[in-house]
């Protein structure tokens, strides 16, 4: 048998010298420690009440909102990316830009689909752009950051709608302009704080400019929103 | 970096291929290709021969750079191989065309990128739509009947127009130049990417022009159109003239005329559609308001009868 082994496995020629004879007792117990903890965890997330599951995700989303509002270069946003927050913000923004009035064809307002497409395709194109220019951030991390940084603009949209309840004169326009400009600056600053580190040094401006354009267009959509009279 | 000796060696092989296809030509073993061309007596002795050979060798170099097939990510990454400084240089070159400075040879230098054309087109789409909206608003501000509308559908129209122009016209120009190049060997064509690059960067001047178009002075708007068309048209003319001047006079001038007129069509079309003057929007606006009223009166008249 050893000869057969030798001829069939020339690579392991040295090993064929070692033989386990019957005089050396080899015995013992081979036992794989059953990780009952994993099984317990799996059972527990299936068994836990739905409220706990939802609250856990909501808490993660809320924590990322806090990171966006006070951007301090932490990597939590990048590490545990999720797309719930961007979806929530995008749908909220698109719904608020509708106005819910009947004469939507006359007004030329952006349709729900247009807002949705601009936000999601815009984020995808900016992410592809940064990856093509040699960025090291992953695709979904970048989508997550860009989506979460729409939060200041959504807050501005809520403020604008409240201001519009008071009237549509020059004062309200000035207030809305200031609010939208401030939140646009905040969004751009927050997203560059998260994204800038992953770009090569001599191409940072090439990556930041599309982000600037993206938030500028969303800001313009918010600023030009007006309720019908 | 290839040393000049390598380039010389490749040129010699090219000349050897030419001579081998013409067995009747004199076979002189001289390394400079212009002398060999003169001795064969069929190719025109041209001062732009060096340019042609540089063009061919740069095309060869560009061909070697593209790694992988078109389904890999690295293939597309090779088109974004530019730095901020390079993009700014190319934009500056498109805004200040100097006679004798070919945009492709001077600025692009066998490193065509897709970053510039794509983002300039996107910026142009939004700047035209937003400025058009602003100019309509400013010209109608005194009208009390006017209710501001964002007119967001214009973004889609602007996007279709600009992207069709920036991608289909270079395709047509490149196809035409390549066809002429296969018919007559003197013509040095450009690669498709270089054509797209030239067209994309030449559109840059329209971005500040469209922002300045919001000023509601009629003569200023037309003056701006003329200036923008002259600048970006001259970039295109300076780029494509060396490629077609060796052709017959008729073809050369026709090609130049078509390129310039398409460019003018884009500019004037954008101006007329997005930046309608007060009279146009006034009539269309009041027309929209009058028509339901006239339908109403017609119905009333019908009922009374």
From TrEMBL, chain A:
The chain crosses the membrane at residues 81-100, 112-133, 145-167, 173-195, 207-226. Residues 70-221 form the Yip1 domain. It comes from the Eukaryota. Its main location: Golgi. GO terms for cellular component: Golgi membrane; trans-Golgi network. Keywords: Membrane, Transmembrane, Transmembrane helix. It is a multi-pass membrane protein. GO terms for biological process: endoplasmic reticulum to Golgi vesicle-mediated transport. It is found in: Golgi apparatus membrane; Membrane. Belongs to the YIP1 family. This is Protein YIPF.
TrEMBL record, chain B:
GO terms for molecular function: small GTPase binding. It is found in: Golgi apparatus membrane; Golgi apparatus, cis-Golgi network membrane. Coiled coil: none annotated. InterPro entries: Yip1_dom, Yip5/YIPF1/YIPF2. One of its GO terms (cellular component) is Golgi membrane. It is a multi-pass membrane protein. GO terms for biological process: vesicle-mediated transport. The chain crosses the membrane at residues 114-135, 155-177, 189-207, 219-241, 253-274. Residues 41-61, 284-305 are annotated as: Disordered. PANTHER family: PROTEIN YIPF, PROTEIN YIPF2. This is Protein YIPF. The lineage of its organism: Eukaryota, Metazoa, Chordata, Craniata, Vertebrata.
């Amino acid at each position: 048998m050893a000869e057969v082994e030798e001829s069939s496995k020339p690579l392991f020629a040295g090993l064929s010298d070692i033989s386990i004879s019957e005089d050396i007792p080899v015995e013992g117990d081979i036992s794989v420690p059953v990780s009952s903890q994993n099984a317990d965890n799996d059972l527990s997330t299936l068994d836990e009440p739905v409220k706990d599951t939802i609250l856990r995700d909501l808490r993660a989303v809320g924590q990322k909102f806090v990171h966006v509002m006070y951007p301090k270069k932490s990597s939590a946003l990048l590490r545990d990316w999720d797309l719930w927050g961007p979806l929530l913000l995008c749908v909220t923004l698109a719904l608020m830009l509708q106005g819910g009035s009947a004469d939507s064809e006359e007004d030329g307002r952006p349709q729900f689909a247009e807002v949705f497409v601009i936000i999601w395709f815009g984020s995808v194109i900016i992410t592809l752009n940064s990856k093509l220019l040699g960025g090291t951030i992953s695709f979904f991390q970048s989508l997550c950051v860009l989506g979460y940084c729409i939060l200041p603009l959504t807050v501005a949209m809520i403020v604008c709608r409240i201001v519009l309840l008071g009237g549509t004169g020059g004062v309200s326009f000035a207030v809305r302009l200031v609010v939208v400009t401030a939140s646009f600056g905040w969004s751009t600053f927050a997203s560059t704080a998260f994204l800038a580190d992953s770009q090569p040094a001599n191409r940072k401006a090439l990556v930041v400019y599309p982000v600037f354009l993206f938030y500028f267009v969303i800001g313009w959509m918010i600023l030009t929103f007006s309720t019908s009279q | 970096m290839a040393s000049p000796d390598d380039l010389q060696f490749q040129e010699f092989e090219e000349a050897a291929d030419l001579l081998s296809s013409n067995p009747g030509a004199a076979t002189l073993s001289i390394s400079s290709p212009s002398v060999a061309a003169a001795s064969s007596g069929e190719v025109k002795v041209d001062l732009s021969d060096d340019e042609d050979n540089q063009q061919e060798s740069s095309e060869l170099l560009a061909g070697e750079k593209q790694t992988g097939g078109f389904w890999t990510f690295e293939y597309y990454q090779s088109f974004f191989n530019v730095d901020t400084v390079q993009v700014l240089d190319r934009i500056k070159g498109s805004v200040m065309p100097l006679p004798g400075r070919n945009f492709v040879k001077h600025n692009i230098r066998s490193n065509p990128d897709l970053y510039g054309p794509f983002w300039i087109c996107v910026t142009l789409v939004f700047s035209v739509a937003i400025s058009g909206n602003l100019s309509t608003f400013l010209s109608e501000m005194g009208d009390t009947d006017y209710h501001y509308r964002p007119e967001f559908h214009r973004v889609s129209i602007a996007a279709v127009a600009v992207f069709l122009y920036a991608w289909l016209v270079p395709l047509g120009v490149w196809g035409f130049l390549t066809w002429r190049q296969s018919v007559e060997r003197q013509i040095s064509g450009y690669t498709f990417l270089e054509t797209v690059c030239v067209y994309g960067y030449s559109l840059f001047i329209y971005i500040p022009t469209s922002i300045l178009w919001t000023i509601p002075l009629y003569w200023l708007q037309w003056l701006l159109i003329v200036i923008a068309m002259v600048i970006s048209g001259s970039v295109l003319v300076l780029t494509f003239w060396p490629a077609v001047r060796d052709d017959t006079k008729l073809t050369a001038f026709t090609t130049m005329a078509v390129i310039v007129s398409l460019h003018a069509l884009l500019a004037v079309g954008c101006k007329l559609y997005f930046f309608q003057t007060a009279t146009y929007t006034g009539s269309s606006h009041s027309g929209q308001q009058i028509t339901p009223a006239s339908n109403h009166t017609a119905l009333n008249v019908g009922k009374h009868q």
